């Protein structure tokens, strides 16, 4: 803090020092009591100045102030979006049942609205509450108003995941990217920015001339470093199509997930059971894979071994095999490695 030394005591003493010594300025004197309230206000003002300085610069700003800074260069916070789920409905004879469009259903504290028919008995239903929490709900739905003939209603597949509002760190990163990679008539920075404008998209790769002159391939993954849903890819396509140069032929794909299967024999340190150790190993390897996704095109054998050793209950390991071998796994630039099976020998 720049003004952390500007405390009430320091300010008051500085003010008292300006008063001649032949005047009573002890605590409780008229001069002291007159200056003390002003010193408190000055100290508060210095505290506010520290806050203003912190919020005025992109590196330390937050909340609505960071949003204001980002909008200066055309970067806007991605708002929370609503999930679209599959609703499966049957009548009293367990046959497919078509509910009216606009019908409302409840699951715990969430309301879902039927917005589109998929096929008989199956509908797209949209959560009224935005955010990712509704992606986790599965089970029986209950109509808000009675629907004649309805037997069962089930909340099923996630068709379009709901996304939480973008956090400050993500917005700040996109702001810095906008500053460090200026826009220029459909350059790589443009395609990266246009793709990341879609809620849920976190990382982008651009391949020029991938299928001849004028072709551009944009490969995306989510901010959780997973391959996005077809619906999310379609949103990226729509956003890019609305902004791309006229002559560009653009293809948008989600990164292909390459499964990484692990076989290993471990020696535990005696502090935990095998099941807990297995989960620790999975978490540790998964952390490593997430860290290198879209940044490295290789899964390193030694790094996987290091991740295994980082598991709390693991003392040592041997006979490690990754996808059946004992070497590094090379992946392409449009692929990401994801953890598959982990087997303890």
Q: Can you offer a commentary on this structure?
A:
- It comes from Geobacillus icigianus.
- InterPro entries: Baseplate_J-like_C, Baseplate_J_M, Phage_Baseplate_Assmbl_Protein.
- Belongs to the Mu gp47/PBSX XkdT family.
- Residues 260-344 form the Baseplate J-like C-terminal domain.
- This protein has 345 residues and is of the alpha+beta class.
- The protein folds into 4 domains: 8-56; 84-160; 181-254, GMP Synthetase, Chain A, domain 3 (2-Layer Sandwich), CATH 3.30.300; 257-344.
- The chain is 32% helix and 29% strand.
- The protein has helices at residues 8-17, 30-56, 63-71, 168-180, 188-196, 230-241, 274-292, 301-310, and strands at 84-91, 104-107, 110-119, 122-127, 139-140, 142-143, 150-160, 201-208, 215-222, 249-254, 256-268, 298-299, 314-322, 329-330, 335-344.
- The strands form 4 sheets. It has a 7-stranded antiparallel sheet with strand order 5-7-1-4-3-2-6. Strands 8-9-10 form a 3-stranded mixed sheet, covered by helices on one side.
Compact description:
The chain is of the alpha+beta class and about 350 residues long. Helices cover about 30% and strands about 30% of the residues.
Key traits:
alpha+beta, 4 domains, single chain, GMP Synthetase, Chain A, domain 3, extended, seven-stranded antiparallel sheet, three-stranded mixed sheet, 345 residues
Fold topology:
Blueprint: H1 8-17, H2 30-56, H3 63-71, E1 84-91, E2 104-107, E3 110-119, E4 122-127, E5 139-140, E6 142-143, E7 150-160, H4 168-180, H5 188-196, E8 201-208, E9 215-222, H6 230-241, E10 249-254, E11 256-268, H7 274-292, E12 298-299, H8 301-310, E13 314-322, E14 329-330, E15 335-344
Helix pairs in contact: 1-2, 3-4, 5-6, 7-8
């Amino acid at each position: 803090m720049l003004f952390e030394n500007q405390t009430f005591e320091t300010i008051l003493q500085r003010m008292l020092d300006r008063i001649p010594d032949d005047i009573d300025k002890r605590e409780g004197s008229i001069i002291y009591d007159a200056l003390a309230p002003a010193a408190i206000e000055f100290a508060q003002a210095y505290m506010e100045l520290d806050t203003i300085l912190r919020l005025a610069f992109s590196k330390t700003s937050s909340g609505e102030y960071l949003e204001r800074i980002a909008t200066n260069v055309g970067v806007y916070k991605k708002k929370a979006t609503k999930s679209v789920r599959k609703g499966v409905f049957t009548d009293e004879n367990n046959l497919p049942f078509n509910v009216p469009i606009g019908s409302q259903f409840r699951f715990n504290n969430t309301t879902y609205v039927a917005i589109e028919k998929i096929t008989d008995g199956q509908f797209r239903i949209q959560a009224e509450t935005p955010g990712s929490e509704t992606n986790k709900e599965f089970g029986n739905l209950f109509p808000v108003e009675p629907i004649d003939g309805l037997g069962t209603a089930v909340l099923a597949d996630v068709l379009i995941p709901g996304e939480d509002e973008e956090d400050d760190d993500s917005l700040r990163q996109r702001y810095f990217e906008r500053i460090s990679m200026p826009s220029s008539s459909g350059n790589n920075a443009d395609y990266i920015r246009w793709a990341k404008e879609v809620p849920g998209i976190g990382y982008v790769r651009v391949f020029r001339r991938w299928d001849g002159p004028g072709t551009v391939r944009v490969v995306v993954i989510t901010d959780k470093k997973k391959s996005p849903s077809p619906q999310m890819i379609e949103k990226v396509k729509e956003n890019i199509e609305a902004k791309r140069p006229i002559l560009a032929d653009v293809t948008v794909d989600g990164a292909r997930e390459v499964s990484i299967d692990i076989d290993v024999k471990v020696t535990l340190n005696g502090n935990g059971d095998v099941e807990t150790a297995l989960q620790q190993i999975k978490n540790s390897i998964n952390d490593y894979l997430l860290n290198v996704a879209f940044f490295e095109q290789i899964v390193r054998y030694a790094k996987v071994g290091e991740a295994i050793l980082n598991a709390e209950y693991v003392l040592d390991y041997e006979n490690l095999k990754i996808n059946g071998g004992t070497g590094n796994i090379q992946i392409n630039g449009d692929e990401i490695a994801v953890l598959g099976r982990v087997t303890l020998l």
